[in-house]
Amino acid sequence: MSSTPSLRRRNGVLALSAAALVTTFLLYLLFHDSPLYPLDKVDLTLRFPTLSSAFRSSSTLPWTRPILPDYCSPGSPEDFWSTRYTEENLSMARSYSGSGTRFRHLVEKAMRGEPVKMGVIGGSVSRGRNSGTLGPYHQRIFRFWNTTFFPHPENWLADGSRPATGSSYFSMCWGEHIPQDVELVFVELSINDYRTTEAASIWETLVRSLLELPTKPTVIAINSFALHGRNGIRNPTLPYLLANPALEASLFGSENGIDPKHINDVGHQMVADFTTHWMRDEICRVMSERDVPPGSVRKVEDNWWTEPIDLGAVPHLRMTEQWRKVNDTIPSLHPTCKSTSSRPPLQPSKGEEWYFEEAPGDKFYWSASKPGAKITFGLDIAEGRVGMFFLRSRKQWLGNVKCWLDDNVKASKLVEGWWNKDESVSDYVALWSNVASGKHNLTCEVQTTTKDPGGGHAFKIIGLATV
Q1: Are residues 197 and 346 in the same domain?
Q2: How many CA atoms lie within 13 A of 227 on its CB side?
Q3: Quick one: which of 79, 129, 156, 363 could link to 124 by a disulfide (CB 3.0–4.6 Å)?
Q4: Count of CB atoms within 10 A of residue 396's CB?
Q5: Same domain, 83 and 163
Q6: For residue 424, what are the CA distances in angstroms to 116, 124, 392, 397?
């Protein structure tokens, strides 16, 4: 017990010594002007004993299930699609859904807060004829995307639609109407395209050229419905029209009665809803795939179906081709196009009795109707092919032209404007395929011969394409 006071004195001395040492060190740090400190290489980190896991806080926050949008919940008030149309009709509205791979990549981009660039390739339906005050289907889709799915001030939509225009024109000239950095493209050409193998091949050329863009865009084919037999949203609507033909007025009624080729406000809303419903499914799929704890692994059977493969790649095989070697590739076309709706529009180098026509319905032509009238355009040909877009109709007093390159009148080609079909649409004719590369002049002359029963000689040029 007698040693306790001396022990206390010794501890006190030690404490004072430690305090003096710390004070001296602090004064040294404050006033010493050398960049080198004597304790620079001494680890002064405080370390505590490792606690038992039962008492230690986790180094990561616990996983919480993300909240999905209400429109992902079937039967919720936000799931208006199923209550408005029924699931059966929504399924019938999809001819082919595809893998959705490219669109889901786009969804992931939008979820990161980035804007999305959209474009439209289509005919008069996409142009908005008979669509009402809310505009055509694509404007409605865009508004829904920008208010419900992924609002962003820099989202935009480029409308490249042209009335009375089909795949034959757009397969060569789509670049004149929408920018090449689009990430989502709506293609609506079912009213102006025929159900032939040739027309399908031309449509595929258009879609392939879009899919091959560096942005790897999503392409959504939207097929409208007309009373003269084209398909599209016909799948879900036809049974109801057959059961109640009076529904014609609900889908095709206009200020001038029934418009058999152009859906009205109701039809445009249907197209928009069917499209956003498919989008909804893919968006909710992306969000649901994130709805699992980190590190979870989905078990799949080990076979060739489950091997990684890019389902968004452009197939080597075209729809109409037979099986080919896996390494074979289809060469991409790189056409140069100029049309009357390009910016700036197609201009002739000279013309005799031809004029630029601005027809009703946002249609533009280089037109002439007097036999002997000539028009010449300058061309720059790269790979040897030349073609022309022109109007075909049996209602507009159309005749024929002869066209030739440079001064080679003997090798001229006859192009006929009149045909015995109901549609008045843009058509394409391949004029030559082995032209020497370089600059040339294309001249066309209105002929005295015509197939028009009324003796019409008019001809309407829409554009030129070279490859």
Answers
A1: no
A2: 19
A3: 129
A4: 17
A5: yes
A6: 35, 12, 6, 12
Which tens digit of pLDDT belongs to each residue from 327-360?
A: 566 666 678 899 999 989 999 999 989 999 999 8
Cβ neighbours for 37, distance < 8 A, ≥ 6 positions apart = 28, 29
CA-nearest of 249, 283, 278 to 266 is 249
d(CA 467, CA 461): 19
Give the range among 36-45, 70-79, 372-381 with minimum mean pLDDT.
36-45
Q: In which residue are the tokens 């042209």 written? A: 162
Q: CA separation (Å) from 300 to 92, 101, 104, 151, 307?
A: 30, 19, 21, 36, 10
Cβ–Cβ < 8 Å for 353, 459: no
Q: What pTM did the predictor assign?
A: 0.78
Give, for 55, the enclosing helix (H) or strand (E).
none
147 burial type by CB count under 10 A (0-12 exposed, 13-18 middle, 19+ buried): exposed
Q: Are residues 384 and 261 in the same domain?
A: no
| Paired tokens of 392 | 């075909």
Q: How many residues does the chain have?
A: 467
Report the CATH number at residue 352: 2.60.120.260
